[in-house]
UniProtKB/TrEMBL annotation:
The lineage of its organism: Eukaryota, Metazoa, Chordata, Craniata, Vertebrata. The gene is LOC107570574. PROSITE patterns: G_VLIG. This is Interferon-induced very large GTPase 1-like. Residues 584-822 form the VLIG-type G domain. Pfam families: URGCP (PF25496), URGCP_GTPase (PF25683). The keyword Cytoplasm applies. One of its GO terms (molecular function) is GTP binding. Keywords: Cytoplasm, GTP-binding, Nucleotide-binding, Nucleus. PANTHER family: INTERFERON-INDUCED VERY LARGE GTPASE 1-RELATED, URG4-RELATED. Its main location: cytoplasm. InterPro entries: G_VLIG_dom, P-loop_NTPase, URGCP. It comes from the Eukaryota. It is found in: Cytoplasm; Nucleus. GO terms for cellular component: cytoplasm; nucleus.
């Protein structure tokens, strides 16, 4: 639970409504400590529960949990308090004439308004969202806004401080968001993917003066995606008049075209929405009207001497394009003068108004050459920019920028050679090491080992590049919080630097994982020759750094995706450091296997609120591991302290063609199945012919575990099933899967020299409990489709199943031993 300063609430002129809201949400009023990402990402009893109704004190926790799972129904949480009122009203309405005196009902002392005032005002869903936003620290805010974007929701752009009313621009929260869209240029389709803070797009600004009968937010939703409430509006479930934290907030959303003729707009367009009466929020009004390509205002007919009328008059005189919407007028679209429109809304269908408004906006955009860039909002005076206001965030950015300056304008394909010299020889070492485990004819094991020793000595002779020296120096200067800002900034800037010029060559990819690989190889070369490097003072600080990153919630590369090899010495040292820092904790290891682009990373990220690192614009390469903490209350109910989540690259990856794909897939499957207590086998659809290969790889991997007396388990997840409610169809699908697994087991048993007739002879497996069917990920067609809430519910059910498998656990030290043996 977030806590706020007691003094802030008791300063002169305190806001009673706000105090009441935070009291309802059980926000404590003691200190200024903020809610951290680590607090909400842990496994709690609440995170495993699903209820129809929640108490008001559970609203914040429930909203966060649903949002982290990309469930857009996070905004539509029903409370027990509201439900009780509904039931009471229903009971009152069900009384017969004999039980209730109609005369008293109509003419009694208690009026309907008195009855309403006696009932507690329900908490507005957007107050829950903004309460979390105000409580969160910088990292949780960024995670929250990233997830809101994935839910295709509008994002906070300008936010008045609930206590001081100073306006904040939370630029930091947008740094991880990328948008993709397609535009038509004659018959050519042009695809774009950009960090949203860099994208230059037209911007349409909506605002209102006074109270109006039409919903501005609902009008905007019809323009962006009529099937989804991008902006919360008065007709959404749970809406009430008791909104406290949204007044003066500006939200932003983007329409991203798909390159089809049915697109409402041909280019990516930003839409900004000022909540509340614009006349009371002059600063927000001034900033957005200046930056907009088109201004759209809702207003009632006013006296010409009215203050708001003078603002409209100035906008009308200005060269800026303007559309005025009058809820009390019946007129269709009227062009007053060039690109100044009036549209009446009274007694007109929503679809007609939306179509007219869309045409008027498109006509205006054709005339406008102005573009909007998110970063430019920070140039306005009298607003607070979170990145500048937070000293740790600012220092992290400055340090990352200094390191990035070393890259200059160098060719990305040559950056690795000059800045990461240890990795080229590492690839050679990996190739030789694989030869040890495969028949090589006349090559002797002694020759291969001698060559590998020689490679390690050559590797050790390399100097540490200035880039890596600077990285190690910078990261050792900071405390844990500052380190996280530095690493986040470096990842953001590296992705920005590489994605602009990313070619088909994997050599062009250069991310944080490549830096950590180099550090790993510096460590391995020193350990292999038992000698430190002269420009490295403390060798043990390197695995210690990686262990700290894991404890802080960062993923670490377990298997090098380029070399297709596990750096055993490095990973073992990192796990040893984890034991030193945490103790030899009980861990439940969860891994995932499946074809490339089958939704493995998306599934894990939704399940645990994670953000697995991948190179910009590419699928997962190799394998990454990330720690998820179990809360203290849950540790008494289950047998482990952490879940170690292992995300893997896809099997049958096209880029592996010619690299003995079959061997690679078998090795990968054997390694991650042996490492894990439970492996999720991720399969797209139910076509048995298509899953034949992956099932064969999986069965053989589990058979090898049986031979070495390891007892992992698995759950099959069928993704993208159109009708997951058809029980008969699912029963038939399970039966066919069981038959296929048994058939493959018989063949694999002969090949591996095992005694097994059925898949259940190899591992403990229940086809009724250990096969899950997932709905399609998207509700509609990307890029504007939100995630399917049914998919999110499937994720929640799978999460419960995973926890129920927790009887089989490991210790960190056992993981280290397994990796060394592998």
């Amino acid at each position: 639970i977030c806590v706020f300063s007691y003094l802030i609430f008791h300063k002169e002129g305190k806001d009673v409504k706000m105090e009441k809201l935070f009291r309802k949400l059980h926000v404590e009023v003691k200190h200024i400590n903020k809610l951290r990402a680590a607090d909400v990402l842990q496994i709690t009893e609440h995170s495993l529960q699903s209820h129809e109704f929640y108490s008001e004190k559970e609203l914040i926790q429930t909203f966060i949990q649903k949002l982290l799972m990309m469930n857009y129904r996070a905004r539509y949480i029903q409370t027990k308090e509201t439900n009780k009122q509904d039931q009471t009203q229903q009971t009152d309405n069900d009384f017969s004439e004999e039980e209730s005196d109609i005369f008293d009902d109509v003419f009694g002392n208690l009026s309907p308004s008195d009855k309403a005032s006696n009932q507690s005002d329900p908490v507005h869903p957007m107050d829950v969202q903004m309460a979390v936003f105000h409580c969160a620290d910088g990292f949780l805010k960024q995670l929250m806004v990233t997830k809101l974007s994935q839910c295709q929701y509008a994002l906070p752009l300008l936010v008045p401080d609930p206590f001081t009313r100073q306006i904040e621009f939370p630029l930091w929260t947008f740094r991880q968001i990328k948008k993709s869209w397609k535009m038509r240029n004659n018959n050519e389709i042009i695809s774009q993917t950009q960090p949203i803070y860099k994208a230059e797009t037209p911007m349409v600004f909506f605002f209102r003066f006074g109270s109006v009968s039409s919903s501005k937010s609902q009008l905007m939703n019809d323009l962006i995606n009529e099937k989804h409430n991008t902006f919360f509006h008065r007709n959404c479930p749970g809406s009430s008049t008791s909104r406290v934290l949204m007044d003066g907030v500006v939200e932003i959303a983007w329409f991203c075209p798909s390159g089809k003729n049915t697109d409402k707009f041909t280019d990516c367009v930003a839409f900004c929405n000022l909540h509340g009466d614009a006349g009371k929020h002059e600063k927000q009004l001034q900033i957005l009207t200046e930056m907009a390509s088109v201004n759209v205002v809702l207003l009632s007919r006013t006296d010409k001497y009215d203050r708001n009328a003078s603002i409209i008059k100035n906008l009308y005189k200005d060269k800026k394009l303007l559309i005025c919407l009058f809820p009390e007028d019946k007129s269709t679209v009227i062009e007053m003068k060039k690109r100044k429109f009036i549209i009446g809304l009274k007694d007109r269908s929503q679809s007609d108004v939306s179509e007219e408004l869309r045409k008027a906006i498109n006509a205006c955009l054709l005339e406008s050459s102005s573009t909007f860039r998110l970063e430019d909002v920070s140039k306005h005076s009298d607003i607070r920019v979170d990145e500048e206001d937070d000293d740790d965030c600012r220092r992290g950015r400055e340090a990352a920028q200094q390191i990035m300056s070393l890259l200059g304008n160098k060719d990305l394909t040559k950056v690795k050679e000059s800045f990461l010299p240890h990795q080229k020889l590492w690839h050679q070492w990996c190739q030789k090491n694989k030869e040890l485990h495969r028949p090589q004819g006349d090559k002797t094991e002694r020759e291969i080992r001698r060559k590998n020793t020689e490679i390690r000595h050559q590797q050790h002779e390399f100097h540490i590049s200035d880039f890596i020296k600077r990285f190690i120096k910078e990261i050792n200067l900071y405390d844990q919080h500052q380190k996280m800002f530095f690493l986040k900034w470096l990842k953001i800037l590296l992705d920005e630097h590489t994605s602009a010029d990313l070619s088909e060559l994997q050599a062009a990819a250069f991310g944080l994982e490549h830096i950590m690989r180099e550090i790993g190889q510096i460590y391995e070369s020193c350990e292999s020759v038992e000698k430190n490097k002269k420009d490295l003072k403390d060798l043990s600080s390197l695995p210690s750094l990686a262990a700290e990153m894991m404890i802080s919630g960062s993923p670490l590369e377990l298997m090098d995706g380029d070399a297709a090899h596990v750096p055993v010495i490095w990973i073992s040292a990192v796990l040893d450091q984890l034991v030193q820092k945490l103790g030899d904790q009980r861990v439940f290891v969860l891994s995932v296997l499946g074809l490339q682009s089958s939704g493995k990373s998306t599934m894990l990220n939704a399940m645990f609120g994670l953000q697995f690192a991948v190179s910009a614009g590419r699928c997962t390469r190799g394998a990454f591991m990330q720690l998820v903490r179990v809360s203290d209350e849950m540790k008494t109910q289950i047998k482990f302290d952490y879940i170690l989540v292992v995300d893997t690259e896809g099997l049958h990856a096209p880029e592996l063609a010619g690299r003995s794909t079959r061997d690679h897939d078998n090795e990968l499957a054997t390694f991650v199945v042996g490492l894990a207590n439970l492996t999720l086998i991720n399969i797209l659809g139910e076509n048995l012919a298509e899953m034949q290969d992956i099932l064969q790889i999986v069965v053989q991997a589990f058979m090898r575990m049986k031979k070495v007396r390891l007892n992992p388990s698995c759950v099959f997840v069928h993704q993208n099933i159109s009708d997951i409610t058809a029980r008969e169809k699912n029963m038939e699908g399970r039966r066919r899967l069981q038959e296929k697994l048994d058939e493959i087991t018989k063949l694999a048993a002969e090949e591996e020299g095992c005694d097994a007739e059925r898949f259940s002879d190899v591992i403990k497996f229940d086809v009724q409990k250990d096969v899950k069917y997932f709905a399609q990920l998207w509700e509609g067609n990307p890029p504007m489709a939100p995630p399917n809430p049914n998919y999110c519910e499937n994720i929640q059910e799978l999460k419960k199943t995973i926890i129920s498998h927790g009887y089989n656990i490991s210790y960190i030290q056992q993981l280290t031993d397994y990796i060394r043996k592998s």
